[in-house]
Amino acid sequence: MRTYRVLMRGLTRRWKLRPGAAEQPAPVSPTLDPLVQRILLARGFREADAMQRFCDPRLLDMHDPGLLPNIDEAVSRLIHAVRQHERIVIYSDYDVDGITAAAILYHIIRTADPDAHLDTYVPHRLEEGYGINSDALRQIKAQGADLVISVDCGITAHEPAQVAREIELDLIITDHHHVPPEIKGLPDAIIVHPHLPGREYPFAELCGAGVAFKIAWRFATQWCGSERVSEIFQQMLLNLLPLAALGTIADVVPLVGENRVIARHGLHLIKITPLVGLHALIEASNLLEEKIDSEKVGFILAPRLNACGRMGHAAEAQRLLTTAGEQEAKDIARRLTQLNRQRQKIEREIHQQAAQMAEDAGMTRDDCRIIILAHESWHPGVVGIVCSRLVDQFSRPTILMQKQDDLCKGSARSIEGYSIHQALQSVDQYLTTYGGHDMAAGLSLTMSQLDHFTTALTEHAGEHIQSQDLLPSISIDCDAQLEEFNVPAVQRINTLSPFGRDNPRPMIRIRNLTVAERPRQIGAHGKHLALRFRAASGSNPTSMRAVWWRAGHLAEELAPGMTLDAALHPKINEWNGRTTVEAELRDVRLCEA
Question: pLDDT (tens digit, 9 = 90+) per residue, 124-139?
């Protein structure tokens, strides 16, 4: 668990410092860069071996898949189905995690038997909603299926599991989502899950694709009858690692432990993938000549796969990663890119409209702590993304809903320290349905309850959110000197990647910097800010360029000669054959004269 203490207030954010961040501890490892060690020490690493394993995660560090609860029962049933030529359907969620998880099982089964009777099923986001539904199981059974295996969904599917038993359809559920405390018991099916009560797997934070990869691994060993699988299975498991990495990064699970191993090695292999659909997606995203890291997955590849489910039906994205041949894969990848552009356009329009509505309604004033809006024209597949944008913009929880007939249905996103799920629970008398977790939720209510709900939840937010909570925070890993940031040092910092949840990009504080020249507004409409810093004291003339995204409006507040502390991410910039160190600035604090 992370522990921070609030140290100071910057120009735009609260700064929180990890314990010991301002200290210069003695090196623990003789082989690791001192700055890398300071970052790892601040993040709780104390032993040199643990630091080295984190910087260089190995596939051998992964746990035996046989430790997953019920995995052997599930794999035995799956192998029996393949060998008996039964009809198998992989039932997935419609997001990136579900799509990649289904593709992983699809390809490992096809490796065992290229002629296996195998299909996939993806529910329609808007017409069927999330999870296994009974009507879909009846349809699948009517089409001749003998076995359904779910990925990334099903842990709360009590009624569908009962229906499957009644219609004599065998069901295996593989999932990773937490079971809500109000739900007692588990569905009547074979369940593979990393944290079943009382039977926890050593690493409980796998996503759906991670669970699917472990099942694929166990399937290979059981099919081959040995822990040493055949060369064709070994190669396929390596080919599937990029899919598992996509699901892991896109689902925003902690990038530590096994997730870090999967993401690190999957990203390493992603550019040389022989999977035609994944290669076509990379090509359509103009990433063939780029280094693909977690940011490119999160902001370029994953949104294309998600756009299909948000704007239409995710079955096409599923086909891209499973059955599509080379030409079809290229055609689908191009369509996903077009759908993503359409999604971005709709997102911008809703964002602009919702932001204006929030301001007009007084929801962005200091005395209002939450945004709650509904509109008949908003696309239900996009409002969740816009919620996140408004949380970033206005630093307060946001709920956006589409009005349709007598129903309002939408999404909620929150800020640190305010559980939106608990908040909805406190006013559930006004809700038809709701579910989620601390930071995100979905909900629906009738139009007649909208005003009552808005009033009650606004009062709840006002009572539980303090004014200082509306100022976003950043967490500082450690202090450093400007001269420490040379190209080799920053390259060594990048050995801590891939970055994401629970392993954020290192945030460094540099104290007593001088603004070396007048800041310049850059980008469209001067939206961003470019600065140059130099050390405020000492004989070393080291300087560094920095870019502060979405801070162009602060240009007049910073002037040459000012002394300040800076919180930043060091980055490598390659341009015109030159490699230099730059900073992505996150905030500054003006030093007192």
Answer: 887 887 889 999 999 9
